Amino acid sequence: MKKHIFLSIILGLFLLVGCNSSPKSSKNNEKALEAGTKGRWTVEQAKVWGEEKGWLRGANFNPSTAINQLETWQAETFDPETIDRELGWAEDIGLNCMRVYLHHVAWQVDKEGFKDRMREYLDIADSHGIKTIFVFFDDCWNATYQAGPQPEPKPGVHNSGWVRDPGDLLHEQPTLINDLEVYVKDILNTFDGDGRIVMWDLYNEPGNSGYGNKSMPLLKDVFGWGREVRPSQPLSVGVWSLSLSDLNKFQVENSDIITYHNYEGPEKHQAAIDSLKRYGRPMICTEYMARRNNSYFQNIMPILKRENIGAINWGLVDGKSNTKYAWDEPIADGSEPQLWFHEIFRLDGTPYRQEEVELIMSLTGAE
Length: 367
Known about the structure:
Order of helices and strands: HHEHHEHHEHHEHEHEHEHEH
Structural class: alpha/beta
CATH topology: TIM Barrel
Largest sheet: 8 strands, parallel
Low-confidence stretches: 3-36
CATH class: Alpha Beta
CATH superfamily: Glycosidases
Number of helices: 13
Oligomer: single chain
Helix content: 25-40%
Strand order of the largest sheet: 5-4-3-2-1-8-7-6
Shape: globular
Protein backbone atom coordinates (compact mmCIF):
# COMPACT_ATOMS: atom_id res chain seq x y z
CA MET A 1 0.00 0.00 0.00
CA LYS A 2 1.79 3.10 -1.18
CA LYS A 3 1.40 6.85 -0.97
CA HIS A 4 2.15 8.56 -4.30
CA ILE A 5 5.08 6.35 -5.32
CA PHE A 6 6.15 2.74 -5.49
CA LEU A 7 9.77 1.70 -5.70
CA SER A 8 10.44 -1.68 -7.27
CA ILE A 9 11.90 -4.40 -5.08
CA ILE A 10 15.07 -5.79 -6.63
CA LEU A 11 16.83 -6.85 -3.45
CA GLY A 12 20.45 -7.57 -4.26
CA LEU A 13 23.61 -7.84 -2.24
CA PHE A 14 22.87 -4.69 -0.26
CA LEU A 15 20.69 -6.84 2.00
CA LEU A 16 23.76 -8.76 3.08
CA VAL A 17 25.91 -5.81 4.13
CA GLY A 18 25.86 -4.10 7.49
CA CYS A 19 23.68 -1.14 8.41
CA ASN A 20 25.61 2.08 7.96
CA SER A 21 23.25 4.69 9.33
CA SER A 22 21.20 3.22 12.15
CA PRO A 23 19.29 5.78 14.21
CA LYS A 24 19.97 6.26 17.90
CA SER A 25 18.58 3.24 19.73
CA SER A 26 15.79 3.43 22.27
CA LYS A 27 16.54 1.89 25.65
CA ASN A 28 14.89 -1.36 24.57
CA ASN A 29 16.36 -1.65 21.08
CA GLU A 30 19.47 -3.65 21.89
CA LYS A 31 17.42 -6.11 23.92
CA ALA A 32 14.88 -6.27 21.11
CA LEU A 33 17.54 -6.89 18.48
CA GLU A 34 19.11 -9.66 20.55
CA ALA A 35 15.73 -11.26 21.25
CA GLY A 36 14.73 -11.01 17.61
CA THR A 37 17.85 -12.69 16.26
CA LYS A 38 17.99 -15.43 18.90
CA GLY A 39 14.30 -16.27 18.73
CA ARG A 40 13.99 -16.51 14.96
CA TRP A 41 12.67 -19.75 13.53
CA THR A 42 15.19 -22.01 11.87
CA VAL A 43 14.97 -22.54 8.14
CA GLU A 44 13.77 -26.08 8.86
CA GLN A 45 10.95 -24.84 11.10
CA ALA A 46 9.90 -22.34 8.47
CA LYS A 47 9.86 -24.98 5.75
CA VAL A 48 7.70 -27.31 7.86
CA TRP A 49 5.26 -24.42 8.37
CA GLY A 50 5.18 -23.76 4.64
CA GLU A 51 4.49 -27.40 3.82
CA GLU A 52 1.66 -27.51 6.35
CA LYS A 53 -0.02 -24.32 5.12
CA GLY A 54 0.26 -25.04 1.40
CA TRP A 55 -0.33 -22.32 -1.18
CA LEU A 56 -1.87 -19.29 0.51
CA ARG A 57 -3.85 -16.99 -1.78
CA GLY A 58 -6.14 -14.15 -0.94
CA ALA A 59 -6.46 -10.40 -0.53
CA ASN A 60 -5.83 -7.52 1.81
CA PHE A 61 -9.28 -7.30 3.35
CA ASN A 62 -11.12 -4.29 4.66
CA PRO A 63 -14.94 -4.60 4.59
CA SER A 64 -16.51 -2.28 2.03
CA THR A 65 -18.35 -0.42 4.80
CA ALA A 66 -15.12 0.67 6.56
CA ILE A 67 -12.90 3.53 5.43
CA ASN A 68 -10.02 2.48 7.67
CA GLN A 69 -8.84 0.14 10.42
CA LEU A 70 -10.70 2.01 13.17
CA GLU A 71 -14.02 1.81 11.37
CA THR A 72 -13.38 -1.90 10.87
CA TRP A 73 -12.74 -2.65 14.56
CA GLN A 74 -14.63 -0.11 16.68
CA ALA A 75 -17.75 -1.51 18.32
CA GLU A 76 -20.06 1.05 16.73
CA THR A 77 -19.04 0.19 13.17
CA PHE A 78 -17.86 -3.42 13.32
CA ASP A 79 -19.91 -5.08 10.57
CA PRO A 80 -20.01 -8.90 10.78
CA GLU A 81 -22.82 -9.14 8.23
CA THR A 82 -20.74 -7.44 5.54
CA ILE A 83 -17.64 -9.38 6.54
CA ASP A 84 -19.53 -12.67 6.21
CA ARG A 85 -21.01 -11.75 2.83
CA GLU A 86 -17.74 -10.55 1.32
CA LEU A 87 -15.63 -13.41 2.63
CA GLY A 88 -18.23 -15.70 1.10
CA TRP A 89 -17.42 -14.21 -2.30
CA ALA A 90 -13.72 -14.82 -1.60
CA GLU A 91 -14.46 -18.43 -0.69
CA ASP A 92 -16.42 -18.91 -3.91
CA ILE A 93 -13.35 -18.17 -6.04
CA GLY A 94 -10.97 -20.31 -3.97
CA LEU A 95 -9.22 -17.72 -1.81
CA ASN A 96 -8.05 -19.07 1.53
CA CYS A 97 -6.21 -16.26 3.33
CA MET A 98 -6.89 -12.60 4.15
CA ARG A 99 -4.44 -9.97 5.40
CA VAL A 100 -6.24 -7.73 7.89
CA TYR A 101 -5.00 -4.56 9.61
CA LEU A 102 -5.50 -3.86 13.31
CA HIS A 103 -5.12 -0.52 15.14
CA HIS A 104 -3.90 0.13 18.67
CA VAL A 105 -6.48 2.87 19.33
CA ALA A 106 -9.39 0.45 18.90
CA TRP A 107 -7.68 -1.74 21.50
CA GLN A 108 -6.98 1.18 23.86
CA VAL A 109 -10.62 2.24 23.92
CA ASP A 110 -12.07 -1.23 24.50
CA LYS A 111 -9.45 -3.92 25.08
CA GLU A 112 -11.71 -6.89 25.75
CA GLY A 113 -14.32 -5.85 23.20
CA PHE A 114 -11.58 -5.45 20.59
CA LYS A 115 -10.34 -8.98 21.20
CA ASP A 116 -13.91 -10.29 21.14
CA ARG A 117 -14.40 -8.69 17.72
CA MET A 118 -11.15 -10.25 16.53
CA ARG A 119 -12.51 -13.62 17.65
CA GLU A 120 -15.79 -12.99 15.85
CA TYR A 121 -13.92 -12.06 12.69
CA LEU A 122 -11.86 -15.24 12.95
CA ASP A 123 -15.02 -17.30 13.45
CA ILE A 124 -16.55 -15.83 10.30
CA ALA A 125 -13.38 -16.26 8.24
CA ASP A 126 -12.94 -19.83 9.45
CA SER A 127 -16.52 -20.66 8.43
CA HIS A 128 -15.44 -19.80 4.88
CA GLY A 129 -12.21 -21.80 5.04
CA ILE A 130 -10.15 -18.60 5.23
CA LYS A 131 -7.03 -18.13 7.36
CA THR A 132 -5.84 -14.71 8.55
CA ILE A 133 -2.65 -12.65 8.60
CA PHE A 134 -3.04 -9.81 11.11
CA VAL A 135 -1.01 -6.59 10.72
CA PHE A 136 -0.04 -4.47 13.74
CA PHE A 137 1.68 -1.23 12.71
CA ASP A 138 1.58 0.79 9.48
CA ASP A 139 3.48 3.81 8.11
CA CYS A 140 1.05 4.55 5.25
CA TRP A 141 -1.35 7.42 4.57
CA ASN A 142 -2.81 9.79 7.16
CA ALA A 143 -0.53 10.64 10.09
CA THR A 144 -3.23 11.53 12.63
CA TYR A 145 -6.32 9.72 13.85
CA GLN A 146 -8.77 9.56 16.69
CA ALA A 147 -11.33 7.17 18.11
CA GLY A 148 -14.99 7.65 17.29
CA PRO A 149 -16.69 8.51 13.99
CA GLN A 150 -14.34 8.35 11.03
CA PRO A 151 -14.33 10.72 8.03
CA GLU A 152 -16.38 10.10 4.93
CA PRO A 153 -14.40 9.16 1.81
CA LYS A 154 -13.10 11.96 -0.39
CA PRO A 155 -14.59 11.38 -3.87
CA GLY A 156 -12.15 9.69 -6.21
CA VAL A 157 -9.23 9.65 -3.73
CA HIS A 158 -7.40 6.40 -3.00
CA ASN A 159 -7.47 5.49 0.70
CA SER A 160 -8.46 9.02 1.74
CA GLY A 161 -9.31 7.92 5.28
CA TRP A 162 -6.67 5.26 5.96
CA VAL A 163 -4.52 6.02 9.02
CA ARG A 164 -1.03 5.18 10.16
CA ASP A 165 -0.36 3.30 13.36
CA PRO A 166 1.17 4.78 15.47
CA GLY A 167 2.19 7.49 13.01
CA ASP A 168 3.43 10.88 14.19
CA LEU A 169 1.91 10.39 17.64
CA LEU A 170 4.81 8.16 18.72
CA HIS A 171 7.32 10.92 17.93
CA GLU A 172 5.20 13.53 19.71
CA GLN A 173 4.48 11.33 22.74
CA PRO A 174 7.44 8.94 23.20
CA THR A 175 5.81 7.31 26.24
CA LEU A 176 3.23 5.81 23.86
CA ILE A 177 5.82 3.07 23.28
CA ASN A 178 4.84 1.59 26.64
CA ASP A 179 1.20 1.21 25.60
CA LEU A 180 2.24 -0.23 22.26
CA GLU A 181 4.31 -2.89 23.98
CA VAL A 182 1.38 -3.90 26.19
CA TYR A 183 -0.91 -3.92 23.15
CA VAL A 184 1.28 -6.15 21.01
CA LYS A 185 2.02 -8.59 23.82
CA ASP A 186 -1.66 -8.73 24.85
CA ILE A 187 -2.79 -9.64 21.32
CA LEU A 188 0.03 -12.14 20.75
CA ASN A 189 -0.56 -13.85 24.08
CA THR A 190 -4.33 -13.91 23.64
CA PHE A 191 -4.18 -15.55 20.21
CA ASP A 192 -1.10 -17.69 20.66
CA GLY A 193 -1.91 -21.16 19.38
CA ASP A 194 -4.93 -20.04 17.33
CA GLY A 195 -4.56 -22.05 14.14
CA ARG A 196 -6.84 -19.69 12.24
CA ILE A 197 -4.03 -17.12 12.28
CA VAL A 198 -1.25 -18.16 9.91
CA MET A 199 1.18 -15.31 10.60
CA TRP A 200 1.70 -12.00 12.39
CA ASP A 201 2.74 -9.17 10.06
CA LEU A 202 4.30 -6.89 12.65
CA TYR A 203 4.73 -3.67 10.66
CA ASN A 204 3.45 -2.64 7.23
CA GLU A 205 5.95 -0.71 5.10
CA PRO A 206 8.19 0.71 7.83
CA GLY A 207 9.89 3.85 6.59
CA ASN A 208 7.05 4.94 4.31
CA SER A 209 5.63 8.49 4.41
CA GLY A 210 9.16 9.88 4.52
CA TYR A 211 10.03 8.28 7.87
CA GLY A 212 12.97 6.26 6.56
CA ASN A 213 15.22 5.03 9.36
CA LYS A 214 13.10 6.95 11.86
CA SER A 215 10.98 3.78 11.89
CA MET A 216 13.89 1.55 12.92
CA PRO A 217 13.40 1.82 16.71
CA LEU A 218 9.77 0.68 16.56
CA LEU A 219 10.66 -2.04 14.06
CA LYS A 220 13.30 -3.40 16.42
CA ASP A 221 11.01 -3.11 19.42
CA VAL A 222 8.08 -4.94 17.84
CA PHE A 223 10.30 -7.84 16.79
CA GLY A 224 11.69 -7.93 20.31
CA TRP A 225 8.22 -8.00 21.86
CA GLY A 226 7.25 -10.78 19.49
CA ARG A 227 10.29 -12.86 20.43
CA GLU A 228 9.56 -12.39 24.11
CA VAL A 229 6.05 -13.80 23.66
CA ARG A 230 7.18 -16.46 21.16
CA PRO A 231 3.73 -17.17 19.68
CA SER A 232 3.16 -20.38 17.77
CA GLN A 233 2.60 -18.41 14.57
CA PRO A 234 5.55 -16.97 12.61
CA LEU A 235 6.52 -13.30 12.62
CA SER A 236 7.38 -11.25 9.56
CA VAL A 237 7.74 -7.72 8.19
CA GLY A 238 7.66 -7.38 4.42
CA VAL A 239 10.30 -5.57 2.37
CA TRP A 240 8.88 -3.06 -0.09
CA SER A 241 11.37 -0.35 -1.13
CA LEU A 242 14.85 -0.67 -2.60
CA SER A 243 15.96 2.58 -1.00
CA LEU A 244 15.47 1.46 2.61
CA SER A 245 18.53 -0.77 2.84
CA ASP A 246 18.98 -0.62 6.63
CA LEU A 247 15.34 -1.47 7.30
CA ASN A 248 15.32 -4.17 4.61
CA LYS A 249 18.37 -5.87 6.09
CA PHE A 250 16.85 -5.97 9.55
CA GLN A 251 13.48 -7.19 8.24
CA VAL A 252 14.76 -10.14 6.23
CA GLU A 253 17.27 -11.16 8.91
CA ASN A 254 14.59 -11.29 11.61
CA SER A 255 11.48 -12.56 9.77
CA ASP A 256 10.55 -16.22 10.18
CA ILE A 257 8.81 -16.16 6.79
CA ILE A 258 10.01 -13.86 4.01
CA THR A 259 7.31 -11.42 2.90
CA TYR A 260 7.43 -8.64 0.35
CA HIS A 261 5.36 -6.20 -1.74
CA ASN A 262 5.62 -5.77 -5.50
CA TYR A 263 3.25 -3.84 -7.74
CA GLU A 264 5.19 -4.14 -11.00
CA GLY A 265 5.09 -6.34 -14.08
CA PRO A 266 6.25 -9.94 -14.37
CA GLU A 267 9.90 -9.33 -15.25
CA LYS A 268 10.63 -7.11 -12.26
CA HIS A 269 8.46 -9.21 -9.98
CA GLN A 270 10.38 -12.35 -10.95
CA ALA A 271 13.66 -10.55 -10.28
CA ALA A 272 12.44 -9.69 -6.78
CA ILE A 273 11.49 -13.33 -6.19
CA ASP A 274 14.88 -14.55 -7.38
CA SER A 275 16.70 -12.13 -5.07
CA LEU A 276 14.73 -13.34 -2.03
CA LYS A 277 15.07 -17.06 -2.72
CA ARG A 278 18.59 -16.97 -1.29
CA TYR A 279 17.17 -17.01 2.22
CA GLY A 280 15.71 -20.47 1.70
CA ARG A 281 12.48 -19.70 3.56
CA PRO A 282 8.82 -19.81 2.53
CA MET A 283 7.69 -16.59 0.89
CA ILE A 284 4.46 -14.63 0.72
CA CYS A 285 3.81 -11.64 -1.52
CA THR A 286 1.55 -9.71 0.83
CA GLU A 287 0.73 -6.96 -1.68
CA TYR A 288 0.52 -7.06 -5.49
CA MET A 289 -1.92 -6.33 -8.36
CA ALA A 290 -2.11 -2.74 -9.58
CA ARG A 291 -3.57 -2.88 -13.07
CA ARG A 292 -2.19 0.45 -14.25
CA ASN A 293 1.32 -0.73 -13.33
CA ASN A 294 1.09 -3.92 -15.42
CA SER A 295 0.58 -5.99 -12.28
CA TYR A 296 -2.46 -8.13 -13.12
CA PHE A 297 -3.83 -11.41 -11.89
CA GLN A 298 -3.19 -12.83 -15.36
CA ASN A 299 0.55 -12.12 -15.45
CA ILE A 300 1.52 -12.33 -11.76
CA MET A 301 -0.64 -14.89 -9.97
CA PRO A 302 0.53 -17.81 -12.18
CA ILE A 303 4.14 -16.93 -11.34
CA LEU A 304 3.38 -16.95 -7.63
CA LYS A 305 1.65 -20.31 -7.87
CA ARG A 306 4.50 -21.82 -9.89
CA GLU A 307 7.02 -20.56 -7.33
CA ASN A 308 4.79 -21.66 -4.42
CA ILE A 309 4.73 -18.11 -3.06
CA GLY A 310 1.69 -16.87 -1.17
CA ALA A 311 -0.35 -14.46 -3.32
CA ILE A 312 -2.15 -11.72 -1.37
CA ASN A 313 -3.38 -8.98 -3.69
CA TRP A 314 -4.52 -5.54 -2.60
CA GLY A 315 -8.28 -5.30 -2.29
CA LEU A 316 -11.31 -7.56 -2.42
CA VAL A 317 -14.47 -5.44 -2.73
CA ASP A 318 -14.92 -1.86 -3.93
CA GLY A 319 -15.96 0.26 -0.97
CA LYS A 320 -15.19 3.25 1.25
CA SER A 321 -11.43 2.86 0.93
CA ASN A 322 -11.68 3.92 -2.74
CA THR A 323 -8.73 1.78 -3.77
CA LYS A 324 -10.13 1.24 -7.24
CA TYR A 325 -8.59 4.68 -7.82
CA ALA A 326 -4.81 4.89 -8.31
CA TRP A 327 -2.52 6.22 -5.58
CA ASP A 328 -1.59 9.36 -7.46
CA GLU A 329 -4.49 9.85 -9.89
CA PRO A 330 -7.52 11.21 -8.00
CA ILE A 331 -10.76 11.77 -9.90
CA ALA A 332 -12.32 14.81 -8.30
CA ASP A 333 -15.91 14.05 -9.26
CA GLY A 334 -15.68 10.47 -8.02
CA SER A 335 -16.60 9.01 -11.38
CA GLU A 336 -15.61 5.49 -12.41
CA PRO A 337 -11.91 5.20 -13.34
CA GLN A 338 -11.32 3.93 -16.84
CA LEU A 339 -9.20 1.13 -15.34
CA TRP A 340 -9.64 -0.01 -11.76
CA PHE A 341 -6.37 0.08 -9.82
CA HIS A 342 -7.25 -2.59 -7.20
CA GLU A 343 -10.23 -4.76 -6.11
CA ILE A 344 -11.84 -7.93 -7.47
CA PHE A 345 -15.58 -7.40 -6.84
CA ARG A 346 -18.07 -4.61 -7.21
CA LEU A 347 -20.21 -3.71 -4.21
CA ASP A 348 -22.98 -6.09 -5.32
CA GLY A 349 -20.59 -9.04 -5.59
CA THR A 350 -20.26 -9.10 -9.36
CA PRO A 351 -16.66 -9.32 -10.61
CA TYR A 352 -14.97 -6.23 -11.99
CA ARG A 353 -13.65 -8.49 -14.74
CA GLN A 354 -15.13 -11.92 -15.22
CA GLU A 355 -12.01 -13.22 -16.96
CA GLU A 356 -9.92 -12.38 -13.89
CA VAL A 357 -12.22 -14.35 -11.62
CA GLU A 358 -12.16 -17.28 -14.04
CA LEU A 359 -8.35 -17.24 -13.99
CA ILE A 360 -8.26 -17.09 -10.19
CA MET A 361 -10.68 -20.01 -9.96
CA SER A 362 -8.62 -22.06 -12.40
CA LEU A 363 -5.48 -21.48 -10.31
CA THR A 364 -7.18 -22.19 -6.98
CA GLY A 365 -9.14 -25.20 -8.22
CA ALA A 366 -12.48 -23.56 -7.42
CA GLU A 367 -14.00 -24.26 -10.85
